Amino acid sequence: MRPQDFGPSLEAQWVRVRARLKGEFGEAAYKSWLKPLTLVGIDDGVARIAVPTRFMQDWVRQHYADRIKTLWRAENKMVRTVEILVQAAAGNQAPAAIPATGTAQRPTASAAARNVYGSANAQANGQAANRATSSPQAANAAAQTALQTAMIGRTQDDVESFGAPLDPRFTFETFVQGKSNEFAAAAARRVADEGKVPFNPLFLYGGVGLGKTHLMHAMAWHIRKRNPQRRVVYLSAEKFMYQFIRAMRFKDTMSFKEQFRSVDVLLVDDVQFISGKDATQEEFFHTFNALVDQNKQIVLSADKSPADLEGLEDRVRSRLGWGLVADIHPTTYELRLGILQSKAEKLGTPMPPKVLEFLAHKIVANVRELEGALNRIVAHSTLVGRPIGLESAQEVLHDLLRASDRRVTIEEIQKKVAEHFAIRLADMHSPRRARQVARPRQVAMYLAKQLTSRSLPEIGRKFGGRDHTTVMHAVRKIDELRAADAAFSEDVELLRRMLEA
Hints:
Elements: H1 10-25, H2 27-34, E1 38-43, E2 46-51, H3 54-63, H4 65-75, E3 81-86, H5 87-92, H6 109-116, H7 122-131, H8 136-161, H9 182-193, E4 202-206, H10 212-226, E5 232-236, H11 237-249, H12 253-260, E6 265-269, H13 278-293, E7 297-302, H14 314-320, E8 324-328, H15 333-347, H16 353-362, H17 367-384, H18 390-396, H19 398-405, H20 410-420, H21 435-451, H22 456-462, H23 468-484, H24 486-500
Parallel strand pairs: 2-3, 4-7, 4-8, 5-6, 6-7
Antiparallel strand pairs: 1-2
Helix pairs in contact: 1-2, 1-4, 6-7, 6-8, 7-8, 9-10, 11-12, 15-16, 15-17, 20-21, 21-23, 22-23, 23-24
C-alpha cells in the first residue's frame, strides 16, 4: 500500500494515538516506555516506530505493541500491523516519507526529512535537507540521519532527567588544588580525560566541604564537553534511593533498571546514605555489577573510606574498594588562602590581604564556611557602605568565629557519651535496641542536635544510617525525660558542659 494513500493527517493521528496511550497506561509508564517512541513512517500498511534501545524494543513489543496496533487501526483502517525498531534498525529500513498532500507525487528530500522525524530539532532538519537530493534514496538517507540525531538527543535528555543538575561553578578550572587534595584531583582528571575506563570505581572520600562534590561535577562537565554523546549522570545516593522507592511504588522497576544501566558514566555522591537501607543496597549492588560488566565508568564519594563505612553489606563494601580509593585531607593554611584569593578575584571586590590571612587562620572546618564568611564580608561592605578591614570583618563574623574557636564534632559526642554510660562506641551505630544502649544513643543524638550545626539527616547518618525521624524522636524523648527527672537532666547537662569546655 502506497504511503500517499494515508493523507496529510498522519502526524495528527500519531499525536492522538500517543494521547490515548498516556491516558490508558498512566503518566509513569508513559514517561518511561511510550514517550521515547518515534514514528518513522508507514509503508504498505506497516507503521514503523523507533525506540532508542534493544531492551526497550523487547519491552514495548511484549507489553504495548498490540494496543498500539489497535489504536492505529482505529485512527487509520489502512494500518495492518506495527513494527517496533531500535534506532539502528530504523536506519536500515529506509522508511518512506509522507507527502503533504494526497496526490501521488514523489516526496522531496526536505519533505521526507520533515515528516519522518518530526520530533528532531531544527538544526538536524537543516543538515538532513542540505545533504538530500531529489531522489527517494537520498531523501530516505537524510531522514534516517536526522532520526538518529533526534533519538540521540532524546536519549541523552531522558537519561539526564533522572539525575541531578550540575553546578556551572564547579569545574576543574575553578578547583583550587593543594597538597591535601592533589591525589584526588589528579585521579578525577585522569577519569575525565580517558576515553577508556582507567580504574573502576573511583572512590573519593573526605570530610564535609573539602571538595568531593566539586570534583564530581567537574568530571561530569569535562566528560560532556569532550564527548557530548556519552551519557553522564550525577546524583546523590539519597536521590538514587528515592528513584528506586518510586519505581517500586509504581511497579516500574524495569524502567529504573533500564535508566541506570544505560548510562556511560554514573557519579553517585554521599554513598554513606545507603547504609542500613537493605533494599537500596541490593539494587545498587546489581546496578554496580551491570555497569562494570559493560565497562562503564562509576565514580562514588562518601565521608569515610569503604572500609570504615558502617551499615553496608560486605559484598557492597568490597566493590566500593575495587578500583582507586582517593582521600581528601583537611585543608592546609596555604590551600585555604589560595581558595580565598581565587574567590575574591571572582567577586571583583578588593580584599585586604590581612583579612584573607585572618580568615584562612581562623576558619579551618571546611571550604563552604570559608566561602560563606567571604560572601558575608563582601555583602556587608556593599550594603552598609563601609570599607573592608580586619576590624569590620571580626564584627561581621563574630558568631562564626566564636563557633570556630571550639567546635564539637558528633564523633566527640559519641565517644564522651559512650564513656559516661560505660557502653561500646560501636553501640552508637549498631541496630541494638536494648534500653541500656538505646538511651545513651538518644542522649548522644540530643547533644549532637544541641551542640552542632548538622542537620537531622546528617546526624542520623552518623548513628548507623538512621532516619531523621529517629533523631527527632530522640530529641523529644530526652526533653521529656529532662523535664520529669532532675537527676537525669543534671547528667545530660554535665555531659554538655564537658563537651563545651
